[in-house]
Amino acid sequence: METIAGTAAGVPFTALPPAGATDAPAPLIVTWHMLDAPRTDAAFAAALPMTGVPAWRVHLGMPMCGVRMLDGRVDGAIELARKDALMAFLAPFVHQAADEFPAALTALRAQLPTDDEPVSVLGASLGGAVALRVLTGQRIPVRAVALVNPAVRIRSTVGLVEDLAGHTYRWTAESHKAADELDFVARAKDLRAQPPLLLVSGERDHPELRTDAVALVDTLREQYAHPDGVELITVPGLAHPLADEPGLEPAPQLPTARAVDGILTQWFTGWLTSSR
Question: In this structure, what CATH number is given to the domain that contains residue 64?
Fold first, then answer.
């Protein structure tokens, strides 16, 4: 069975079949890519294919990325960042991706032979914020969560986007409220479910994101009935991106991405095939 490219309730996706695929329904893992490279669903699927996992890996395209790029060009999103890094750029990406997920999930289950167990999710960078918003929103049962160099607190990400925007961000009461809604360390208390969670942090990722990653893991471990269900793994030599620029098309897997891919493959396979 080959890679499938399609759309689910208007959301583009790249789907990879389970290892040892048969006609039997298999578990489902849904991912959201980065805005850095790889910045499309197809490119993300090439960077982190997780070919050994006995589950469908469906990589969803983020809003305003890939075939949904504004005016068909990357610069369209950059112009939004210059207008307002949080309210016109970061927050809309996260909210739209999370809000369109329930309908996309229903459509995916109608198109692919998946089982009816809770879905697992994976998010990288800003896609990590999407996965965490899905988790805290609690509209969709989640079986397991993995995050790679995630945007755990959107305030930290705003600071990183300032260079792209070309000016210091001007905070308002409205933007502070929006940032509070996307601070998943603070919102960890909203979690009633406690799915296993893996956070993969690059040794050379942005220091702010690494600090936030540790804060999230520490907070969740304090809340979880079984703290060992929350894991933090640091990958030597890994910076923030998982692919070379421009990151729009599938490309050969970088050694650091291969290391992340191996970690995710082992972790997801363990949780999907055992009763831990």
Answer: 3.40.50.1820
